[in-house]
Amino acid sequence: MNTLKASIKYAAAAVLGLVCLAQSVSADTLNDIRQRKKIVIAIDLGSPPFGMTDDKLQPYGSDVSAARMLAKDLGVEMEIIQVTGPNRVPFLLTNKADIVIASFSITPERAKVINFSVPYSASESVVGAEKTMQIKSLADLAGKRVGVVRGNLQDTLLTPIVPKGTTLVRYDDDSTNAAALLSGQVDAIGTAKELVTTTARKNPGRNIETKFSVKVVPHGIGVRKEDTALLAWINNWVIANMKNGNLAKSYEAAAGAPLPDLSQYMPK
Predict the structure, then answer these.
(1) Lowest mean pLDDT: which of 18-22, 27-31, 57-61, 103-107?
(2) Is the distance from CB of 61 to CB of 52 less than 8 angstroms?
(3) What is the pLDDT of residue 195?
(4) DSSP-assigned states of every residue in 180-239
């Protein structure tokens, strides 16, 4: 079992096994949310198909749908705080948001400072470029400029493994990263497969495609370490909505493809 899978299963089992204790020991944020009748959720609205805005600047996407479902089931209103990849953890730790639902990949590094729920979504990290660009593997990135979101998963994954001569160009969000590819500022981008699909669909004349896969990584809902009662409630909510298919339907409606199988990460 790999380190990521083991850490997810361990965390999930520990939290679910201590639900009653968690609710009695640390219920402050969960109680605060219920008392104010509103939950503040940080969402990245520049990360299609997880978070986007329409032509009227209204948020939508699979993460937005998941957040709305969660708030409804908790019986409270929802306020969205917009974040980018680099500031998801800071916004959570400085109490600007109660939780983070923002294509938040579960990594051992992040799990040192925050807690993650059991996975509710996932993305495949890939390298994407125009069809004419001769890229078939990691080795072909040598001598090329590759855009990534600063501090995001693809930055973390690619930085230690790109071949010598590769220039990683870091941007603040997925939208800017995709725009850099379309404008020719970079030769390729490291991003979620879903974003490559969305970019290709919105720009049919550019022939944007996935060149190769880097890694499939599950997403979790981010919660502060001390908010064990809130995490316990969210874990139970995720498990229930994975079983009834609501989260899978939400993902497929936004991504146009089935949600990856996350059963291996669920508590047994």
Answers:
(1) 18-22
(2) yes
(3) 86
(4) HHHHTSSSEEEEEHHHHHHHHHH-GGG-EEEEEEEEEEEE--EEETT-HHHHHHHHHHHH
**pLDDT category, 2, cuts 50, 70, 90?**
low
| Predicted model pTM | 0.72
- Which pair of structure tokens corresponds to residue 205? 């004349």
For 3-120+220-265, CATH number out of 3.30.499.10, 3.30.750.24, 3.40.190.10, 3.10.450.50 equals 3.40.190.10
Q: Is 165 helix (H, G, I), strand (E, B) or coil?
A: coil
Six-digit token string for 1: 């079992």
Asked if pLDDT for residue 20 goes beyond 80, the answer is no
CB burial of residue 25 (10 Å; 0-12, 13-18, 19+): exposed
* Whether 245 contacts 57, CB under 8 Å: no
Residues 93-115 pLDDT 10s: 999 999 999 999 898 989 999 99
Task: Please give the CATH superfamily to which domain 124-216 belongs.
Answer: Periplasmic binding protein-like II (3.40.190.10)
